[in-house]
Amino acid sequence: MKVLMVEDEELTREGMRQSIPWEELGVTAVYTAEDGEEGLSTALREKPDIVMADVRMPRMDGISMAFAIRKELAHCRFIFVSAYCDKEYLKSAIQLSAINYIEKPVDIPEVVETLQKSISQIQEERRRQAMEEEYRAHFHGVLEEIPEEDLVPTSWKSSEQLAERIESFIRANLSDYNLSLTMLADQFDLTKQYLCWVFKKERSETINQCIVRTRLLWAKDYMRRNPSVKIREAAERSGFTDSSYFIKLYKKQENMTPADYLKSLQ
C-alpha cells in the first residue's frame, strides 16, 4: 500500500509523516510533495493507492491535482485536508468520492481512522477484482461471454459474506419444501451458476449438500428434544417430503437410522 502526502506547510507535512504508524497500517511507502504540480508528477510516477492533499496550495490546488490524477489512476483514493470549510471544495471532494475532508489543525487519530477506512476499501476492491478474474478464468471456454451482472455484485463485499448469508437463509427456511438453488438465486438476485461457484469455493460443499446437511442436523436436534416424536413428523418438520429418503440420508450421515437414534435417547 502506497501513500502520497501533498502539503505546502512543512510543519503539517512532516508532523503527519512522523506521527502516523504507517507500518501498522500496512503502508509500505510514503511519498511527499510540496504543491499540486509536484504532487501530480509524483503520483503519475509512483502510482500511490491513497493521496492525502491540502486543498489550497500554490501553483495547483489539491482538487485540480486530484482530478488530474484520477484521469490516470482510476482507483486512487483521496483524503483532503484544509483549514477552510469551502462549500465548492466540498462539492468537488464529493465528486471525487473522497474518503474524508479533514479540517486543520489535523487530529492524528482522525487521520489514522480515515487511512484505515481507505485501506479497507482498497483491499475489498482488490478482492472483488480478483474474484471477477477467477470467475472469468473458471468459466473460460464454457461461455462465450459472461454478462457483467453475473460477476461479483457490488452489493456483496466478499464471497465469504455472501456464503454466510446463503447459510443463514437456508437455516431460516429449512422447513420449506421449496427451498432450493432456484429459490436462493431468486432471493439474492444472482445466477444459479454464480451462487454454486462462490458457495463451493467458500464452503467446500455444494448448496444442495448444505441444505441436506442443515436439515439433518436440525432433525437430529428436534428428535433429541422430542424423543417420542414420529419419524415422519421429524422428516416433514425438517423439510423432507419423503420419510424414506430422510431415513436413507440420515443413516448415511449419522451411521444409524433415526429409529436407532430415538431408541438410544430412551
Keyword list:
5 strands; 266 residues; alpha/beta; elongated; 5-stranded parallel sheet
Could you give a short description of this structure?
The chain is an alpha/beta fold and 266 residues long. The chain contains 13 helices and five strands.
The share of residues in helices is: 55-70%
* H-E order: EHHEHEHEHEHHHHHHHH
Taken as a percent bin, the fraction of beta residues is 5-15%
* Rounded radius of gyration (Å): 27 Å
Total number of helical segments?
A: 13
Taking the alpha carbons of the first and last residues, their distance comes to 61 Å
> What's the count of strands?
5
Structural class: alpha/beta
Q: Which stretches of 5+ consecutive residues score pLDDT under 50?
A: none
Report the mean per-residue pLDDT as an integer. Answer: 85
Q: Based on CA inertia axes, which overall geometry fits? A: elongated
Reported for the largest beta sheet, the result is: 5 strands, parallel
For the largest beta sheet, what order do the strands appear in spatially?
2-1-3-4-5
Structural overview:
The structure is a single chain. The protein has 266 residues and is of the alpha/beta class. It is 59% helix and 9% strand. The protein has 13 helices and 5 strands. The chain has helices at residues 10-19, 22-25, 36-46, 62-72, 87-95, 108-138, 159-172, 181-188, 192-203, 207-225, 231-237, 243-254, 258-265; strands spanning 2-6, 29-33, 50-54, 77-82, 100-103. It has a 5-stranded parallel β-sheet with strand order 2-1-3-4-5, with helices on both faces. Strand 3 (50-54), helix 4 and strand 4 form a beta-alpha-beta unit. Helix 3 runs parallel beside helix 4, helix 7 (159-172) crosses helix 9 (192-203) and helix 10 (207-225) crosses helix 11.
